[in-house]
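A further point concerns the way the authors explain their paired sequence and structure data. Showing the layout once, in full, would remove most of the difficulty. For illustration, here is how one protein appears when written out as sequence plus structure tokens:
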Amino acid sequence: QIKAIEASIRTAVEADSRIKNTYDLLVSIPGIGMLNALTTIIATGNFTRFQTARQYAKFCCVSPLSRQSGTSVRSGDHVSHAGHNEIKSILTEGARSAIHHDANLKSYYERKRAQGKTHGCVMNAVKFKLICRMFAVVQRQTPYVNVERYRG
């Protein structure tokens, strides 16, 4: 049943050339698979609803918020639990995969953890990096290229 559903999803994606182009660009990023790509395409309206990656990160509740009232009431930055938890959970799976398969993100994750950052804090940063990569490849209209491979 799963294979039949995936086949029908691929047929629907291939029916529209703009969506297919965006989908192909997104899946070129390590950590971004079919589910992440399609969720992002749907949530962003094929990248027409948001101008920047930061706007989409706010929409997904990935970016930290500060709580402040006047000059005396302040609390530390936190991530909102309101919002689109489905999108955020799918991004979490993509971030886990990216940390496993992308050497840059793996070293970033390990470096931040060694600095004493919590797992959740670093995972949010990795999610934001993935969002930035998605917006970059769509804006450039070129697949993701890992430049570390070409440095010698």
